[in-house]
Design a protein that fits this description.
The protein is mainly beta. The protein has two helices and 15 strands. The longest helix has 10 residues.
Length: about 180
């Protein structure tokens, strides 16, 4: 069976809303703090988790780069908590999410995130693994730590092929110039 192609789109709050929140500065409430020496970009997203003994964890994940087109063969979800990712490098990255049909991932969608955009994936939403492009990248991750099974994985029998058009890549690159060679 041939691979189904998924065309990545630009990451916007409106397009990503069914899956979670986009974490970015534009549009955020700004509060001056520290005697006017610091701007707090307030409440960009909130974490959500369930289960006795659960707490919020802050981690840094070091992810290896993926080539384009990307072969999507694995998705996961976290039924007990949301999971936020914010890049610490200067490269765009792919965010891949799926709808849920009877506890099965369906209809994958891909978004190209700019180097200054993060996401908070809602509890129970199927998503791909961290997918930096061009070079290794560190991500600040905020998620649930605690007892209980908070990871479900599904491997697709036939991988999807995720492609990023030059128009989408150029739109992200023009906002955040990056070295792509």
């Amino acid at each position: 069976m041939p691979q189904e192609i998924i065309a990545a789109q630009l990451l916007t709050a409106e397009a990503f809303q069914p899956f979670g929140d986009v974490i970015a500065l534009p549009g955020a409430e700004q509060i001056m703090i520290n005697r006017g020496h610091c701007v707090r970009h307030h409440a960009l997203s909130t974490v959500s988790f369930i289960g006795e003994g659960a707490t919020t964890g802050i981690s840094i994940f070091e992810a290896q780069p993926y080539a384009l087109p990307h072969s999507l063969d694995l998705v996961e979800r976290h039924p007990l908590g949301s999971q936020a990712f914010f890049p610490l490098g200067g490269q765009p990255w792919l965010v891949i999410v799926c709808s849920d049909e009877n506890n099965t991932p369906a209809g994958p969608q891909a978004f190209l995130a700019a180097a200054d955009q993060g996401v908070n994936i809602h509890r129970g939403v199927w998503h791909g693994v961290l997918t930096p492009l061009f070079e290794s990248a560190n991500f600040l991750v905020v998620d649930r730590i605690g007892p209980g099974n908070n990871l479900e994985e599904v491997t697709f029998a036939t991988p999807y092929q995720v492609e990023v058009s030059s128009d989408v890549l150029n739109a992200v690159a023009s906002a955040n110039p990056v070295e792509t060679s």
